[in-house]
Amino acid sequence: MRKCLFVAVCFAFVLVSARSHLVCADGTASAKSDQPKIYRGPYLQCATTESIAIVWRTSTDIDPVVRYGVSPDNLEFELQGDQIIRRMSVDVAAVSDAPIARANLLYDEPLGLGADRSPNDRDPSTRPGTRQYEAFATGLAIGTRYYYGVYDGDELLAGADAEHHFQTLPKTDEATDLRLWVVGDSGTGGSDQKLVFQAMREFSASSRIPDYFLHVGDMAYGDGADEEFQSNFFDIYQSTLRNTVCWPAMGNHEGHTSRGISQFGPYYDAYIVPTASEAGGVSSGTEAYYSFDIGRTHFICLDSHDLDRSPNGAMAQWLMSDLEVVQADWLIAFWHHPPYTKGSHDSDREQQLVEMRTFIMPLLEAAGVDLVLAGHSHIYERSMLIDGAYDTPTVAEGVVVDDGDGNPSGDGPYRKSAGLQPHNGTVAIVAGHGGGGVSRKGTMPIMREIVVENGSLIIDLHEDTLTGTMIDRSGNKRDQFQIIKRGVVEHSPISNPWQPKHDLSQITEHVVTWDSSFEGRLPPKWQLLDDRAGRMSIERRAGTPYYQAVVTAAEGNLIAIYDGIDGPINECQVYLEFVRSEAPAGLVLGWQDANNYCSLHIDQTTERALFYVVRGGERKALSDRKIDVDFSEPLKIELEPVNQIVEVQINDEIEYTVNLDQPLKAGRLGIEAERGAKIRFAGFTIEKARP
Where would I find the Calcineurin-like phosphoesterase domain in this sequence (predicted)? Predict the structure, then answer.
């Protein structure tokens, strides 16, 4: 449950810290009277064998009551008063007659962060006039279904029907029988996210509805703002959330506004997870990472984004303590950044991914982990049965212990010893295909199945058998595997295992390279908008065999457009180096013509990154950010358009989102240098969008 720091915050303090939101005299946000009182939820959180949390939000004051019972027609039990925690946005707290505990204030963007936000950026703060209610039902029967309704006094607001129900967890000594829905990187609010959800619902309707929902992060693009959680997560999944607990892992997009070290931000407002071993495992004392038991299965959730991942860090130390006391038949771990992938991200090149593989995987495999689930990379990848794949780069030789397909209708299930046995084999899955644009950079050699298509994963666990089924957005079954744990099974590393083919037709990454034949001239497929403004030519990078482009804007602003790709993209990347710093330069995307495009400019003189949109020949700055980078080295710049946002990453360290005033149109890409700038660039890479 939440850590409640009952530190009184006086009325004056809250009033000073509150934003100047427009509210009514009673603290309510202006709203139409015909709007429903509940605008978020109700949804379920933090289930245990004898308790659960029911959460919802309103935009007006109510007398909150929850009634529940074993039948929707007989809600004989009631929660009210001190059994319901009331939290609120700062504008509501500002007009409260009573002192408000700091822990009961919902997220309001700190003034220091807000000062650096551009006017076009979304305010990540909680919607004005918000009241959040967290009702904790305790003393429940183990493994029992209850139905519930949410009331304002005696007025029913939601539930009291067959669709609003919850179930307490089974005994930890009972054999596991459950279905999980696993999804990642879904929170775009777009059509693919909705199709993936619909496909899961239709698939489950003919078999079994998921008992639990695991989200491996990035559920609220682009910044994990409060309103993005509402539109891209709660509004879309409400029909499942009202009767299915979601166990979350924080992604990098939620990390734009939420912090693992402080457990502060919209992500931490949205979720309640076990911190004091109330659902099993060892107390973590933080909502950033936690564990829980469902029957004979132990689950571990980690924060791979913004906490220390090293073996001596607090998270790894807690993990080792938790693993030492696990008594279960199955062990499943999940987090955001995958230890193995060649999808839209590369686990051999990115620090968070490398460290989760190098530092965390050895701890889990020594404890007998069965399944590792992650997202971040927008693809579906499922490994063979592996052990000991900790090196960089990842290879298959000597780390695959069963190179079959794991399919009961194919090579047969993977087999492991009963219980948790050290280094007995692990299946690693990337399920980052829940709604964002999917892509593939290369081929990860330990993967048995690679699917570049949106979808989600269903996991069925029944006693000694785990079955995983990947359903794509059209409802097609694209992968199925099983793990059976029975008796004693010994594995040996395979020196020359099966490996997936590097199928170029499936690779969506397009890399622009040059050689000596282009030296000293403008390369093919590039055009200068006005060659009188300057020049672009290819040169060899000193001391290396590699070639780079040099752009000099001597007489005016120079735009160089690449004609090799013309269509929707998922991402573009370039390494850019300033030779002269008199003027800004950067990337162009969505190029229609000289009067309609977008661009990100880096200004070395002011140390700022500016994102512009040009429409009808008029240029408008949508974002202006201070950046702290080493300009003596090439800057790695990545732009990822998703619907009506563009995610910006600089040197894999600076990450933020630009909100567009309208969706980005498909177009060409290029380089723009303002008059006086001279730059070098290389590594010009484009992730093409799948049709």
Answer: 178-380
